[in-house]
Each structure stands twice: as C-alpha cells, then as structure tokens.
Design goal:
Blueprint: E1 3-15, H1 24-36, E2 48-49, E3 60-72, E4 76-80, H2 87-94, E5 102-107, E6 111-114, H3 127-137, H4 142-156, H5 171-184, E7 189-192, H6 201-217, E8 221-225, H7 229-235, E9 238-243, E10 246-252, H8 253-266, E11 270-271, E12 274-276, E13 288-296, E14 299-300, E15 303-305, E16 310-317, E17 325-332, E18 338-343, E19 349-352, E20 357-364, E21 374-383, E22 386-400
Parallel strand pairs: 2-3, 4-8, 4-9, 6-7, 7-8, 15-22
Antiparallel strand pairs: 1-3, 1-5, 9-10, 11-12, 12-13, 13-14, 13-16, 16-20, 17-18, 17-21, 19-20, 21-22
Helix pairs in contact: 4-5, 5-6
C-alpha cells in the first residue's frame, strides 16, 4: 500500500509561561530570521522532556521530540499514552493547527480533524451553515456537500436543531455533528482525538463502526487517539505508544497495549512481589493496611491470565486489640464497572500471622474476566464501626487473554467482559 502520512524528525518545543524572548531586539531578530530568512529560531534552546508530573529546571520543554514513522493508506492507527505524552500535539501538527519546531510531515489527500468539541465550528452559525463551511474548507464543491448532507444529519441525529446556532448545542450534540461532518465529507485522512468520550454509548458505537467502514470499505486512513483501550483494540490494526513526548513503541495493537499496561504496572509501588501501601496518597493512618500481594496458582505474578486462580493477600498492622474487625475489597475494571466485591462477612478468611499483624486472603478459584484490562482494587479496613482505612485505587493489576477453553485458540475480541468456562455445549441426537 502507498504511504499516506510520513512524519520526519517532528519535534515541538514550548516555552513555559512566556511567549516573547523578554527583549524587543530579540523578538525582532527572531521574526526576521524565521519569517524572512526562513531559518531556525535563533533562540531555540535544548529543553527537557515533557514530564508534567515533575518540576524541571528549564523553562523550555519538548512536547514532541524526534518523531519518525509512516502510515500506509487504509491503515487505522491507534495512538495511546498518558496525559501529556504528546498525542494531541502530534495530531494538531498533522492538522496544521500548529507548526512543528523542527521536521516535516508529508500527507497525501484531504485531512478531516476532530480534535476537541466544536473543532472548526462557528458558534453563531447554524448546524447547516457549519456543514457547508467545513466542506468548503476541505475543498469540496457545494454539489458534493449536498449529496452527503442528509447522511450527515441523519448520523448526527440533530435534524430538529440543524437550523439552530451551534452555540445552543450540548457538547454531545456538537461532537455528533462534528464527527459526522469529518467522516462523511470523504476525507482521505480522518484524525480523531479523545472527543468521542463526550458522546453517549450509542454514538460511540456508531462512530467506531463508521471509522471501520471508512478504513476497510473506502480505504481511507484513520488516526485515533483514545484512553479507551477496548476501542483501540477493536478498531486499530497497529498502535503507537507515546511517553514524555517520544515515540516509545509501535507495532501490533495487542502487543503495544500489553507493553503500555505493564509499564504502568511497574510504576504501581510494586517491589519484591508486594504493593507497598504505606505511602499511598489515599492512606489516612500510619497503621492499618500496609501492603498487598498477588498470587496466581501460588506464584506471585503481576499479570493474571484469564481463567487462572487469583488470590489477593492484604497485610494489616494492628494498633490495638480488635473488637469486631471488618475488611472489604472491591474490584473494578478500567471502565469503572464493578466486577467483584467481598468482605469478611461474606467469605474472606482472617489468618493470624503474629501479634502485630494479620493477613487477609481474598480468593477467586477461576478469574472470569476476559480481555487485556486494568483491574482497580479498592480496600477498606475498620473495627467495630470505626473506619481506619478506605483506600480508593489502592493498586491495580492487569489481565491477559488466555485459551480458557483449551481449544487451541483465543476468545474472540468481541467477547463480553466476563465469560463462564463451566458453560458447556453438546450435540443432541
């Protein structure tokens, strides 16, 4: 397949806090060098990587640094990474919202972008007027827009409000119309940032289906940024992982997602087989819950395979004799859906270790959660109606797809969040 997009040594630097060089002479010199002589910014300095969580020593940061990759025509490429990793900056450069500090992008065909709610819409203009304006900006003739107009309105589901100024639309309605315009006006390259999260579940399903149709049926190229790894996995055949403005990994979507999850896991206070919870930001007391361990078949593991036994052991430090101790645990998936809840009133066993500590064991004989997911663990500990600890997102672990039915193949990616390996099928005569 021919190359649709080629990124060559793309870098983007920002100066924190200030726009100018602080002196009029330097500002004029920068303008002359860059705009008249077409040279590089003479005041460009080597900056730090864009780690948003830590204060740096330089006022210059690299939002992107030396990005090189190619996207073939018809590919659907996912872009993942933590907030501040450079994903949106990359798409803004591709969409020519901002220019790169260094490097160049070569793209073949029209680009339609949906980078944030209301991208390219004028709030005072009606939905109808904005459709025609966006089409004209993309270089389309009125006859082409006329032909697609009814499909756009029907997909967006805003027919009743199509002649109402967009400023009166809700954020969800605006995203619906914006996505419909971007997808139906036949761009060769469709660029979608995290905006689909604003829409409801029905619209998200429609939008992902439309992106699949655009790529597979029409052979157009899609770049899709999302924190919804399930959507990335179902839609994208390849994925890019960004970290601190750098392209860390690229390749098969499932493999890249696993790398992303495992890297995140390694930063989860996990040492020597234990999660250290003593310094957890949500911890209230010096005593109480101090660590947790994950076991799979009696072996400490950080990735749980679907269908394997799971045991979570939590160590609690005493500060006095217990009267009526209570321990609770709640498991949620990465879409904040409850998948398991228990406490010592409904099955958890207390095992005394010594006079200073007790250990609580939470066991699941067969972990029935399907897919590559992050599982969030919330912990509670109290005594005789006194709450000692309630640690939200105490730690998390990850699951891998496994051959749970021993059929020689993995479950289909469209399976639901849970499966039942005890469910049998047989042929009746």
């Amino acid at each position: 397949m021919p190359t649709a997009i080629k990124f060559e040594n793309i870098s983007k630097q920002y100066r924190l806090g200030l726009v100018s060089t602080r002196t009029l002479t330097h500002d004029l010199n920068r303008w002359w060098q860059m705009n008249i002589l077409r040279r590089e910014d003479p005041y460009l300095q080597i900056g730090e990587v864009n780690d948003r969580a830590h204060k740096g020593n330089s006022e210059y940061v690299w939002a992107l640094k030396d990005i090189n990759f190619e996207v073939e025509q018809g590919d659907v490429v996912g872009i993942i990474g933590k907030n501040g990793a450079g994903k949106s900056t990359l798409l803004k450069i591709l969409s020519k919202v901002t220019a790169p500090t260094t490097g160049s992008i070569k793209a073949k065909g029209r680009i339609a972008s949906l980078l944030e709610v209301g991208t390219g819409f004028h709030p005072e203009m009606t939905g109808r007027e904005n459709i025609y304006m966006n089409g004209a900006i993309m270089g389309m003739r009125k006859s082409e827009i006329d032909r697609k107009f009814d499909e756009i309105v029907d997909f967006a589901g805003v027919e009743r409000y199509i002649d109402t100024p967009v400023k009166r639309y809700s954020s969800g309605m605006t995203v619906r119309l914006g996505f419909a315009v971007a997808a139906f006006l036949e761009p060769e390259i469709l660029v979608v940032d995290e905006v689909l999260a604003v829409g409801d579940a029905e619209f998200q399903k429609k939008a992902i289906g439309k992106m699949q149709d655009v790529s597979r049926g029409d052979g157009r190229t899609v770049l899709f940024v999302s924190h919804n790894l399930t959507a990335i996995k179902s839609l994208c055949n390849s994925t890019l992982l960004f970290e601190n403005g750098c392209l860390a990994h690229s390749g098969n979507t499932s493999e890249i997602i696993n790398i992303y999850l495992k890297r995140d896991y390694s930063n989860n206070n996990f040492n020597n087989g234990k999660f250290n919870l003593i310094n957890h930001p949500n911890k209230k007391n010096k005593f109480g819950i101090i660590n947790a361990e994950l076991f799979c078949g009696g072996i400490e593991k950080n990735i749980i395979e679907t269908g394997e036994p799971l045991e979570i052991r939590v160590t609690i430090c005493k500060n006095s004799h217990f009267i009526n101790p209570e321990f609770g645990i709640v498991l949620m998936d990465d879409e904040i859906r409850y998948i398991g809840i228990n406490n010592n009133h409904i099955g958890i066993q207390f095992n005394s270790i010594n006079k200073n500590e007790i250990q609580v064991a939470f066991r699941i004989d067969r972990f029935k959660i399907f897919g590559n997911k992050e599982i969030l663990v919330n912990l509670y500990f109290g005594d005789d109606d006194i709450e000692y600890e309630c640690i939200y997102n105490a730690f998390s672990f990850y699951t891998n797809i496994n051959d749970v039915y021993a059929s020689g193949r993995l479950l289909d990616k469209d399976f639901n969040i849970m499966y039942d390996p005890d469910f049998s099928i047989k042929i009746l005569q």
